[in-house]
Amino acid sequence: MLLTYMRGWERGRERLPPGYRLDTSDPAIWVLRRPNGTATAYFSAWNATRESVERAARDDDDSRRRRWSKRRKERVE
Q1: Which residue range forms the structural domain that includes residue 49?
Q2: For 14, which of 5, 46, 59, 69 is 20 to 30 Å away at the CA?
Q3: How many domains, the chain?
Q4: b/e per residue, 33-44, with b = 16+ CB within 10 A?
Q5: DSSP readout, 25-60?
Q6: What is the pLDDT of residues 32-59, one digit of tens each?
């Protein structure tokens, strides 16, 4: 936790899509988790930036929404 404090990273202050969370239980590898708990991205605790975590979460969320929308349209047609 000292490293995150030194970088100005306040745990839990990330701007993530609803349900996404950053699992920091391993001090070396942080895991970005989806609302269902599955892992979507891994980050080195030494090199992770808030921006990279937020971007990965947004990209994954956008991708999931596009796939869901596409499946929904296919069912209607």
Answers
A1: 2-76
A2: 69
A3: 1
A4: bbeeeeebbebe
A5: -SSSEEEEE-TTS-EEEEEETTT--HHHHHHHHHHH
A6: 999 999 999 999 988 888 899 999 999 9
